[in-house]
Design brief:
CATH architecture of the largest domain: Alpha-Beta Complex
Order of helices and strands: HEEHEEEEEHEEEHHHHEHHHEEEHHHH
CATH class of the largest domain: Alpha Beta
Number of helices: 14
Shape: globular
Distance between the termini: 57 Å
Radius of gyration: 24 Å
CATH topology of the largest domain: Aminoglycoside 3'-phosphotransferase, Chain: A, domain 2
Helix content: 40-55%
Number of domains: 2
Number of strands: 14
Strand order of the largest sheet: 3-4-8-9-7-6-5
Length: 399
């Protein structure tokens, strides 16, 4: 009933007692989206038409209409639906003209690169108008059975790490960091293997995205001097915007974090000098299409392997910007930072005793650096601002 209540947008007084509601809550509407794809239907409207697009991975052998559909949830930028536990449909709520990178990349990885660690592209619905690029309305993929996303799996592993550290607290008092067999014992043997596999799958994803040279939308391009200069200018502009924002927000931070924020603000010149190093040597790397918003929440863990999701890029960025070719290291950096966020998030769970947090903070950094190393061997959360602050401090200390 609560979910049904959430569907109501407006009620109209009158003899018919009419209700305007969100169509995604209607079973008939959900099935109509599936049918549009499975039968490649075309529906004409006043200014354009809806066109169903069926991918090559969609099996038409004995295909029937789904018996059951359910709305899984609505987020800021999309709504999710499940059909018979086999098909997953994402309806986009933030629409822009032009190819959606989520659909574009998922279809490329499925049909051109044969990359197995994404939910297979099955189809889409587009809205087409004269003299305009098509607008993608939804994406249909295979549903993935998973234990949870990598973020949840990681938090669980870190929580057990903290438990082991606290059990050895008397032995570890005064330890700056653990190393060797002791650190291996504290971290445990399972998660490092998962982090290694996660790194392997990231590398395979980037190789797949760079594997086709006859498609100009995906063909690798040289990371030349102009590209280096562009990266530097963007980094410098972003740094200055973020530091201005941090300056404005310092007084609203918890008092215990204000000193560290001030250290980062005072290091602006050093940070900008570090960023300038991107211009110091000529790069022989290439630019490719990348995930664009790669972190632990974008990966599902099946119990044996990882499946990579959501190639939309950062929803706050313009569509044209999300489709640019970039260095694959942007995705790598996103995942490394996600390890740090996970380490601190587990530290601040309600079940954690407040008196244990100061002791465990150093061990959060130990876990984050260790798992980042294993992985590399190969403004949305303002309440977590201390995490990137400390990340910046670590980078400056290591340079």
């Amino acid at each position: 009933m609560a979910q049904t209540q959430n569907a109501v947008i407006a009620r109209f007084s009158g003899p018919d007692d009419a209700v305007l509601h969100d169509a995604t809550f209607d079973d008939g509407f959900r099935k109509s989206l599936f049918t549009a794809i499975s039968k490649t239907n075309r529906s004409a409207g006043r200014s354009g038409e809806l066109v169903g697009v069926r991918g090559t991975a969609f099996s038409t052998d004995g295909a029937t209409e789904p018996e059951r559909s359910q709305l899984l949830g609505a987020e800021q930028s999309n709504s999710s639906m499940l059909f018979d536990g086999k098909y997953f449909l994402k309806l986009y709520r933030k629409l822009e003209d032009g190819p959606n990178p989520d659909v574009e990349i998922t279809r490329f990885l499925t049909e051109r690169a044969n990359f197995p660690n994404v939910p297979a592209f099955l189809g889409a619905v587009e809205y087409k108008r004269p003299r305009s690029e098509a607008t993608v309305l939804c994406l249909l993929q295979n549903a993935v059975t998973a234990e949870g996303d990598a973020w949840t799996v990681t938090l669980d592993s870190i929580s057990r790490f903290y438990e082991r550290v606290l059990e050895r607290k008397a032995d570890l008092q005064g330890e700056g960091a653990a190393a060797g067999p002791l650190l291996t014992e504290l971290i445990g043997g399972v998660y490092p293997e998962r982090a290694k596999l996660l790194g392997q799958r990231a590398g395979e994803m980037h190789r797949a995205l760079a594997s086709i040279e006859d498609d100009k939308l995906f063909a690798p391009e040289p990371f030349n001097a102009m590209a280096q200069r562009s990266v530097f200018q963007n980094m410098r502009a972003l740094t200055r915007r973020v530091l201005v924002l941090l300056q404005k927000k310092v007084s609203s931070l918890p008092e215990k974090f204000r000193g560290e924020a001030a250290e980062v603000l005072a290091a602006e010149k050093t940070i900008l000098e570090q960023e300038r190093r991107v211009l110091d040597r000529r790069s022989v790397a290439t630019k490719i299409r990348i995930h664009g918003d790669y972190h632990l929440g974008q990966v599902l863990y099946t119990g044996k392997d990882f499946i990579i999701l959501d190639f939309e890029g950062e929803p706050a960025r313009a569509l044209s910007e999300r489709k640019l070719k970039r260095s694959a290291l942007r995705d790598v950096a996103g995942m490394v930072r996600s390890f740090q966020y996970a380490a601190y998030s587990a530290l601040w769970q309600p079940a954690m005793r407040s008196e244990d947090i100061p002791f465990l903070e150093a061990w959060a950094d130990v876990w984050y650096r260790e798992m980042s190393s294993v992985f590399l061997q190969l403004n949305n959360r303002p309440d977590w601002v201390i995490i990137p602050i400390r990340g910046i401090k670590h980078i400056l200390q290591q340079s």
